[in-house]
């Protein structure tokens, strides 16, 4: 039922509940949490009634200088009246008070990034309406603290310290053990603390409380941590958050009450086991904030974590079974692993949230494959369940097993394995310190008692996260998993002292800056730095030290990859410069080499000397001799690559980089090089001065080199053809594609192609054998894209060099972009409205393809090129070729292939399949 008023037509508020009609189930309007509650209510699950204030209301509020949009206040009032009716309680009444929670809920889950207020509606009068006075005052003191923190920014610590005094006085350990008198007194003290900090009395009017709370949740969308989270997760700024106002149920009512969070499957490993944590006599925040170490939800988890705490399965078996059947129902309904929140109020179960659960890359693959095998989802759904970038976690190193054994004496304790992979670094005891280490280029592990959302910048900066308290559903764990960071939580055997900046285990102690290692897969912590070894997938695929049968992770990864291959239409190649790279790429499923940067073959010291001699020697005969030597090396490398890529195409690019990259910088090195070239320092200095360029990236590089030094292109072409013949004679099938870089003018390609073709003829004549080959070009300059129809007359293929194409389209140097592009992306204050952040760019265009500008040039080049040559093969070999969103764009353009670094090949295979399923080109 939509609440509208006469003042506005726009619906900002949608009620939901068991007896209420279901609102439109759109997460873009209701946010994920709002949609989840409404949807659960609509399928008959026990959800406390409530209403959702839409994301549109939030955005209107943000646009109109933080004023509620017209009509919102009236709609809030009408919805509260409706809630009163269905609950048969009254908001602000002393006799039978209605209390609500006010929770944030963005379109996608942003765990812990925004704010929640519980028990709203309490004041000195309504608290007396509780027949259970303990519950009333316990809820009231919680409310004052949360409200003060979230609406007025008064630190919770202020209240927590005051609260501890009561616990000491009454000599109790747990909050709920306090007497009613103590709680009553605590409420008084809390209100005084509020007045001292806010310089006004605590608001008693429940509607004033509601309006302030809603505004605070809206504001939390723009908090520093939420903004950083959005930035990292590519969440648009203009989505806004919804606000869920919901009838309170009380997990802190008595010992027959509890609150918990759970995942329908294990979010760290993906195992099909109901997995969660709960606390008796507590309210929601306590479980996720990691203040008390929660209890395992069932016996399985109890055994897994070697916990001695009583599980829900043991303490409330009936409720546990009810929860289990709801969990099954939710998985059937959503066809995905869910992350749920529940509360048990005096033995009655309520569902407070369901959303698709964040999981590690390992868990994502396992859940997708097992749900497919269980018949719960189909193949397309399985593919879409894994974010392509998450596959990198399966390829990331783990601790070296031997090193781990040898470091036994440094092993100190085992916590919960909450995030994937292994990490070593310096211990950092605060978020700021972690950021500082990162800025100094040092790896660190963020060590906290419990991580809360304000630690987010430190979590981003650190290699891994360790907490001594909190469960695997704590914010630290959820956020770490989302970022794919190694994380160990709840490591209670360790004592963290953030003031002294020490971490202690019995008599062992480490200080800030000391080495520490954590294994997010096993939960182990070591007070030392540990070397890593390849992941299981790499051990099977690349190193061949493990058999597929011995690795479930590998087998599931392999199944997913094969599935992806069945659905994708884009081919996936690799950027590989050496035979070793090519072998790795092929093992990861590359279908050819999309870019072999031949200049990278010259980087080893012996060859570098020959390259220098070739470019800088003042004697023609020395230059010629150097070229001959280089040809031998190049041929060797090409032989290796062709062998590795037997049957697959190999795109080899002629020399591209600016010459100054090969010139020594220091005078000392110059002298050494002069000696090795057997010329005087003066002569070499003159050569260096001649070669100096103001803007080398736009200078003497790319095909311009091959035009100035035709003998270079000829040497490279000869090395390619001779190598191809050698490998062909071994019975292998060789498909060289020779690529001319940085072409902007038709004549440049004509010239280089002529050199390549005449060299081919010469080599074929000498050997009496032929090899099929093609000649093409990179499209890296706007002029090449604009004149692609003309260029295509001489090019059999195009490869979009989007690194340079981005550089030249934006006019932003790829080497200097870091000075300002991050600020463009992060946003700057809008000069017209200081409350507004202006994002000049949504993403760094060197990371995510700029589809609006660079993408348009690609589209144009493709259309023009294929007009001239309908069978023109087109691919991409810039860094964007391994980036999932850019890959989706390449698919929609109708490119033939993407090419990326070998380790990103699995990512590209999956991203291409997801694009094929989701987008029709
Ligand atoms: C490109 O410009 O996108 C490209 C692949 O070439 P390089 O990065 O070597 O300039
Ligand atoms: Mg380039």
Describe this structure in words.
This protein is α/β, with parallel strands linked by helices and 921 residues long. The strands form 8 sheets. It has an 8-stranded mixed beta sheet. Helix 28 (710-729) packs across helix 29. The radius of gyration is 32 Å and the shape is elongated. Mean pLDDT is 91; it is low at 1-8. The structure holds phosphoenolpyruvate and magnesium ion (MG). The site of magnesium ion has 4 residues, from helix 32.
What labels describe this entry?
elongated, 35 strands, 17% strand, 8-stranded parallel β-barrel, alpha/beta, single chain, 921 residues, binds magnesium ion, binds phosphoenolpyruvate, 36 helices
Rg estimate, integer Å: 32 Å
Number of strands: 35
Summing up helix and strand content along with how strands pair, one would put the structural category as alpha/beta
Distance between the termini: 40 Å
Ligands bound, unique: phosphoenolpyruvate, magnesium ion
Proportion of helical residues: 40-55%
- Characterize the biggest β-sheet: 8 strands, mixed
Outline:
elongated
Number of helices: 36
**Strand neighbour order, sheet with most strands:** 14-24-23-16-17-18-19-15
Relative strand content: 15-25%
The residue ranges in which pLDDT falls below 50 over 5 or more consecutive positions are: 1-8
Mean pLDDT: 91
């Amino acid at each position: 039922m939509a609440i509208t008023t006469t003042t506005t037509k726009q619906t900002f508020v949608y009620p939901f509940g068991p007896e209420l009609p279901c609102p439109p189930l759109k997460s873009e309007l209701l946010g994920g949490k709002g949609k989840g509650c409404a949807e659960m209510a609509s399928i008959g699950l026990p959800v406390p009634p409530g209403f959702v204030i839409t994301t549109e209301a939030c955005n209107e509020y943000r646009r109109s200088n933080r004023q509620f949009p017209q009509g919102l206040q009236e709609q809030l009032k009408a919805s509260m009246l409706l809630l009163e009716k269905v609950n048969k309680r009254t908001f602000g009444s002393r006799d039978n008070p209605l209390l609500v929670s006010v929770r944030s809920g963005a379109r996608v889950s942003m765990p812990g990034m925004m704010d929640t207020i519980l028990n709203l509606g309490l004041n000195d009068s309504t608290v007396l309406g509780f027949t259970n006075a303990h519950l009333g005052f316990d809820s009231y003191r919680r409310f004052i603290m949360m409200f003060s923190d979230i609406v007025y920014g008064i630190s919770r610590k202020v209240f927590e310290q005051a609260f501890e005094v009561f616990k000491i006085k009454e000599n109790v350990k747990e909050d709920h053990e306090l007497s009613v008198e103590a709680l009553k007194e605590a409420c008084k003290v809390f209100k005084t603390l509020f007045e001292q900090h806010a310089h006004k009395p605590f608001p008693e009017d429940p509607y004033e409380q509601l309006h302030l709370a809603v505004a605070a949740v809206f504001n939390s969308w723009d908090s520093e941590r939420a903004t950083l989270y959005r930035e990292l997760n590519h969440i648009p700024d203009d989505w806004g958050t919804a606000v869920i106002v919901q009838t309170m149920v009380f997990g802190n009512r008595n010992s027959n009450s509890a609150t918990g969070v759970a995942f329908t499957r294990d979010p760290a490993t993906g195992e099909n086991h109901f997995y969660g944590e709960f606390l008796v006599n507590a309210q929601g925040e306590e479980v996720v904030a990691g203040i008390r170490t929660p209890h395992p939800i069932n016996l399985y988890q109890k055994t897994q974590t070697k916990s001695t705490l009583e599980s829900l399965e043991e303490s409330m078996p009936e409720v546990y079974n009810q929860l289990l059947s709801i969990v099954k129902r939710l998985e059937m309904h959503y066809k995905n692993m869910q992350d749920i929140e529940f509360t048990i109020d005096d033995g009655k179960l309520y569902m407070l949230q369901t959303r698709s659960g964040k999981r590690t890359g390992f868990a994502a693959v396992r859940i997708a494959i097992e749900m497919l095998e269980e018949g719960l989802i189909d193949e397309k759904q399985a593919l879409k369940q894994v974010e392509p970038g998450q596959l990198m976690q399966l390829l990331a190193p783990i601790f070296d097993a031997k090193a781990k054994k040898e470091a036994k004496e440094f092993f100190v304790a085992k916590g919960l394995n909450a995030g994937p992979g292994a990490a070593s670094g310096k211990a950092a005891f605060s978020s700021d310190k972690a950021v500082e280490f990162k800025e100094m280029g040092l790896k660190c592990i963020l060590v906290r008692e419990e991580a809360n959302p304000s630690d987010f910048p430190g979590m981003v900066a650190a290699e891994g996260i360790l907490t001594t308290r909190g469960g695997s559903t704590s914010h630290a764990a959820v956020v770490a998993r989302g970022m794919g960071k190694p994380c160990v939580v709840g490591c209670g055997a360790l004592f963290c002292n953030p003031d002294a900046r020490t971490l202690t285990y019995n008599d062992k102690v480490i200080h800030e800056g000391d080495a520490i290692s954590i294994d997010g897969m096993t939960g182990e912590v070591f007070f030392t730095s540990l070397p890593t070894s390849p992941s299981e997938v790499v051990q099977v695929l690349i190193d061949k030290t493990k058999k597929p049968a011995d690795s479930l992770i590998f087998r599931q990864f392999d199944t997913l990859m094969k599935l992806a291959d069945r659905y994708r239409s884009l081919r996936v190649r690799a950027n590989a410069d050496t035979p070793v790279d090519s072998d790795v790429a092929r093992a990861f499923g590359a279908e050819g080499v999309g870019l072999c940067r031949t200049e990278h073959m010259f980087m080893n010291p012996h060859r570098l000397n020959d390259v220098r001699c070739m470019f800088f020697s003042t004697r023609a005969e020395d230059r010629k001799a150097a070229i001959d030597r280089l040809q031998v090396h190049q041929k060797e490398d090409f032989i290796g690559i062709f062998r590795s890529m037997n049957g697959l195409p190999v795109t080899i690019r002629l020399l591209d980089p600016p010459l100054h990259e090969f010139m020594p910088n220091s005078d000392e090195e110059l002298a050494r090089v002069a000696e090795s070239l057997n010329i005087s320092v003066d002569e070499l200095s003159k050569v260096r001065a001649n070669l100096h360029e103001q803007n080398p990236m736009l200078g003497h590089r790319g095909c311009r080199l091959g035009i100035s030094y035709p003998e270079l292109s000829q040497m490279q072409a000869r090395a390619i053809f001779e190598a191809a013949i050698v490998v062909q004679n071994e019975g292998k099938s060789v498909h060289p594609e020779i690529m001319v870089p940085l072409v902007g003018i038709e004549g440049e390609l004509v010239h280089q192609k002529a050199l390549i073709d005449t060299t081919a003829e010469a080599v074929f004549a000498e050997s009496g054998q032929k090899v099929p080959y093609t000649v093409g070009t990179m499209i890296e300059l706007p002029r090449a894209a604009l004149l692609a129809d003309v260029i295509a007359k001489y090019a059999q293929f195009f490869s979009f060099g989007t690194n340079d194409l981005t550089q030249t389209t934006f006019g932003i140097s790829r080497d200097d972009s870091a000075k300002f592009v991050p600020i463009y992306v992060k946003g700057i204050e809008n000069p017209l409205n200081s409350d507004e952040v202006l994002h000049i760019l949504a993403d760094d265009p060197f990371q995510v393809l700029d589809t609006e500008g660079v993408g348009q040039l690609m589209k144009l080049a493709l259309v023009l090129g294929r007009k001239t040559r309908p069978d023109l093969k087109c691919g991409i070999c810039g860094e964007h070729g391994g980036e999932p969103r850019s890959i989706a764009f390449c698919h929609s353009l109708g490119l033939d292939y993407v090419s990326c670094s070998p380790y990103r090949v699995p990512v590209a295979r999956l991203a291409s399949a997801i694009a094929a399923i989701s987008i029709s080109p």
